[in-house]
Amino acid sequence: MTEPKRILVTGGAGFIGSALVRLLIAETDYEVLNVDALTYAGNESSLAPVAADPRYRFERADIRDAVAMARLLADFRPHVVTHLAAESHVDRSIDGPAAFIETNVVGTFTLLAATLDYWRGLAPDEQAAFRFHHISTDEVFGALGDEGFFTEQTAYDPRSPYSASKAGSDHLVSAWHHTYGLPVVTTNCSNNYGPYHFPEKLIPLMIIKCLAGEPLPVYGAGANVRDWLYVDDHVRALRAVFEGGRPGESYMVGGNSERTNLTVVNTICETLDRIRPRADGASYASQISYVTDRPGHDFRYAIDASKLKNELGWTPRETFESGIEKTIRWYLDNEGWWQDILSGAYAGERLGVSA
Ligand SMILES: NC(=O)c1ccc[n+]([C@@H]2O[C@H](COP(=O)([O-])OP(=O)(O)OC[C@H]3O[C@@H](n4cnc5c(N)ncnc54)[C@H](O)[C@@H]3O)[C@@H](O)[C@H]2O)c1
After folding, report:
1. Which of the residues 13, 199, 211, 259 has an alpha carbon 20 to 30 A from that of 53?
2. pLDDT one-digit tens code per residue, 109-133
3. Which atom of ligand 1 approaches the CA of 17 most closely?
4. For residues 310 and 304, what is the distance between their CA atoms, to the nearest angstrom?
5. How far is the CA of 66 from the centre of ligand 1 (A)?
6. Which residues lie below 8 Å from residue 13, measured CB to CB, with a gap of 6+?
7. Is residue 11 part of a domain?
8. Where residue 64 sits, what CATH number does that domain have?
9. pLDDT at 348 (0 to 100)
10. Residue among 163, 202, 274 nearest 15 (CA)
């Protein structure tokens, strides 16, 4: 009998990490060790659907803790490390960049060093099959104008403390491959949305403010463009890459769903008008209110994901409209999940205006 595959997921209590863990338990035979420090962004209740599964284990630990990382790697003996733990919110990086350097740069370095030590102790066939998968963002490439797409060849040009710290981590991962031979793969993904998304991010924030009858704050004229991807489509792409991607390569992941922020907000309003109309019959769009733009707000991100499609056969299952409807229905059905967060760490206030 072959041994079950073991995957160590960092940041598995976050938005995308928890979606990956839920998918791995639901759709594969992997044993999963979730390593997460449970910062404000980590939420164990996002793992309730898998918590009792014998193939799932949770360990509260910080990726900057070299001793803990070495111990967890030695005990669990993973075939794959997928690295999602990060400080991830641009507005928070403007108000407090230090935590981004600490976790995204120093933390990634610490995890890489521990992983290299562990990998060097494996048998040659295990070394060849091992993967360190680094999850990154399209924001490392800076901003686009009206035309063009980011590809794997696009030069790095980060503009915010968040994207600069992620760019730094991407370079470290690449260096650990070229210098030490660690079999790494990297993915750079566009904006995700979906269930269990922390309520300070654009899409859940707008859904929740719609329901509360509060103004919907749109930055500037709402003209900034993002390429939106439903989170389950992202985690399927992650699986395709750590199972089939070539070591040393990076893969762009995107939904081919470019929308301006104003279109995103209008789509949420129209969907809610249809499935949960306001008591007074007015459209939720009447709550839209324009606010001063974020400092250094990148104009447009767009992804060309052809390499991932051509090499590994991945395509997104959701359109933006089908994914938004699923997301809205999840927020309507799971009010307890986000009310708990709103009553604790985060009160829906505006962040990222201190520049
Ligand atoms: N959300 C997006 O749209 C998006 C798009 C592309 C790439 N990414 C990348 O995907 C990854 C996951 O993003 P997300 O949106 O799920 O983030 P998130 O903020 O929801 O989750 C991050 C998780 O990492 C944990 N964490 C933070 N610092 C840690 C530390 N020092 N040690 C251990 N755990 C720590 C947090 O507790 C949290 O559970 C990030 O690396 C992010 O850069 C996100």
Report:
1. 199
2. 999 999 999 999 999 999 999 999 9
3. 16
4. 11
5. 19
6. 34, 36, 38, 42, 43, 44, 46, 47, 58
7. yes
8. 3.40.50.720
9. 52
10. 202
Can you tell me whether residue 253 is helix, strand or coil? strand
Contact 63 CB / ligand 1 (< 6 Å): yes
Does the Cβ of 103 fall within 6 Å of ligand 1? Answer: yes
CA of 85 to the centre of ligand 1 (A): 5
Active site residue 139: yes
For residue 145, give its domain range: 6-197+229-256+297-318
Q: Quick check: is 286 in a domain?
A: no
Q: Is 162 a catalytic residue?
A: yes
351 pLDDT above the threshold of 70: no
Give the chain's domain count. Answer: 1
Q: Write the pLDDT tens digit of every residue in 68-124.
A: 999 999 999 999 999 999 999 888 899 999 999 999 999 999 999 999 999 999 999
Task: Judge whether residue 347 has pLDDT over 60.
Answer: no
CA–CA gap between residue 355 and residue 352 (Å, rounded): 7
The amino acid that residue 21 corresponds to is: V
Using alpha carbons, list the distances in angstroms from residue 133 to 31, 36, 98, 125, 186: 16, 16, 24, 18, 6
Question: What whole-number distance in Å separates Cα of residue 38 and Cα of residue 12?
Answer: 9
pLDDT score recorded for residue 119: 98
Provide the 8-state DSSP code for 294: P
In-domain check, residue 331 = no
- Helix ranges (DSSP H) in the chain: 15-27, 66-76, 90-95, 98-100, 108-120, 124-129, 161-180, 202-212, 231-244, 261-275, 306-312, 320-333, 335-342
Assigned domain for 220 exists? no
Nearest CA to ligand 1 atom 13: 16
Torsion of CA 100, 103, 105, 111, to 10 degrees: -170
Catalytic pick among 30, 118, 162, 193: 162
The pLDDT of residue 3 is: 76
Q: Cβ(202) to ligand 1 under 6 A? A: no
pLDDT at residue 2 tops 80 = no
SS3 58: strand
Expressed in angstroms and rounded, the spacing between residue 83 Cα and the centre of ligand 1 is 9
